Amino acid sequence: MKNTKLIKDYLFGGMVLIIIIFLINEITFFNNNIFLEFIFIFTLGGVFNVFINKYFSHKEVKTKNAEKDYKLLKNENEEINAVYQQLEAYSQTIDQLNLELNISLDKHQILIDSISDIHIYKNYDEDDYLIKVYEIAKKIISGYDYGVVFKYVDDYVYQLKTDGYNIQKLREIKLEKNIIENCYPKTGLYFTKDSTIRKFMSEDRINEYSKYSPASKEVIYLSIKYQDKHIGGLFLELDKNSKLKYNKNDIKIVNTFQLLVESYYENLENAIKEENRLVDIVKAMTNILEYHDKYTKYHSFNVANIAKQIGKEMKLSNKDIKELYLSGLLHDLGKTFIPKEILNKKEKLTDEEFEIIKKHPTDGFNVLNSIKNLDKIKASVKHHHERCDGTGYPDGLKGDEIQLETQILAVADAYDAMTTNRPYRKAFSKERAIEEIRNNSGKQFSPIVCETFLKMDNIENLSDNECEVENGTV
Ligand SMILES: [Fe+2]
């Protein structure tokens, strides 16, 4: 094929050259021998054509090779770009996974910390604890726009804390427990569009409820229960226009919270058992007082009840009120060391006898001192005769150096002592006792406790309570 093309090129070049020579027809050589001229020019034309063809075909090959190389490089470049983009995508995915992993680790750290802190939470009041769980859930779950934590009170929902709701209005509406239990039978993810609430509420009530509730598209629900007893629950919700979605991890986390809550209630149950045992011990100790001095026993019950009422009025926690009550029962325990002759003496006490009387707070403290976890009670027993102005005994503490529960106990102690017959004097009228407390505000008694005491509606009947120790219910 190559030779055929070469011959053709040769003939074509020779023909072109002959035509040119004939056209010019001015150059003569080989003595005008037309035949030799023809052969020479024909040969020369052929060689020239072959040379030209060779030259251009070489150029053409080079160009084609360059184009081929260019295409190859272009393809390789595109492949490299595609690989680079793929790597870029992988890198972004890894960054995203890393970010999610870090967020996930942070969340798990919060959860681990929460579980580790159970021993702290066990001292929380139940309401405070449920609010704490809600606050932790808000930090760990993927996101929330609204939320609510509630407990059941008398088979109705009582909202403890909300985000995005009108809590006061919701409390007034009083949603029934069975509505929640039917609409949200267990912990998990629920979609608002699937809500079955219309089966259990009238249209009017739903409209009323909706006025004070935000519109959400999905909710994570934690059913708070212990040993099959439904205690309450919490919701975290995403707004109906939110781009977020809850995922499987959120459901796993919220299930873990169930364990956290159960641990708290188990601790609470044990604490109540322990507390009841403590009350039994206190009852036994109070009975010792009866054998020694009947007055002191009934005085102790009265002081415990009055102190409890003041504590409630001052919005102390349930735990503090319980301890305050027990402090009232035990505050004069040290009097068992005082001879009956001195306790029941009708005449004025000598200085020596008064010094013996003044030992009873420290003696009572020493009796209790070996019992663990009674710090506030022991302090109240030791310091119930301290005075706000620092002139009391045994340590001459003053003002805030005396713990609040002891300041309350001092007012309750004085009020009951004044309104009761004593061996050395008749009982004061309640009006006079109240007046004495008013006059001694800031001197013997804490002004804040006096202010609360003097405002109490039931002040006239304070020492008429039944003299019974209530197991775990004070
Ligand atoms: Fe006392």
Give structural notes.
A five-stranded antiparallel beta sheet has the order 2-1-5-4-3. It is an alpha+beta fold and 474 residues long. The termini are far apart. The chain is rod-shaped. The chain has three domains: 90 residues, no CATH class; 133 residues, GAF domain (Beta-Lactamase); 172 residues, Hypothetical protein af1432 (Orthogonal Bundle), CATH 1.10.3210. α9 crosses α15. Helix content is 61%, strand content 9%. A hairpin with a 2-residue loop joins β1 and β2.
The CATH architecture term of the largest domain is Orthogonal Bundle
Task: Count every beta strand, where a strand is a DSSP E run of 2 or more residues.
Answer: 5
Q: How much helical structure, as a percent, in the residues?
A: 55-70%
Average pLDDT reading:
83
Residue stretches low in confidence (pLDDT < 50, at least 5 long) are: 465-474
Q: What is the element string, with H for helices and E for strands?
A: HHHHEEHHEHEEHHHHHHHHHH
Cross-sheet strand order for the largest sheet: 2-1-5-4-3
- For CATH, the homologous superfamily of the largest domain is named as Hypothetical protein af1432
- Tally of alpha and pi helices: 17
Distance between the termini: 117 Å
CATH top level of the largest domain is Mainly Alpha
CATH topology of the largest domain: Hypothetical protein af1432
Strand content: 5-15%
Task: Give a short synopsis of this structure.
The protein has 474 residues and is of the alpha+beta class. 61% of the residues lie in helices and 9% in strands.
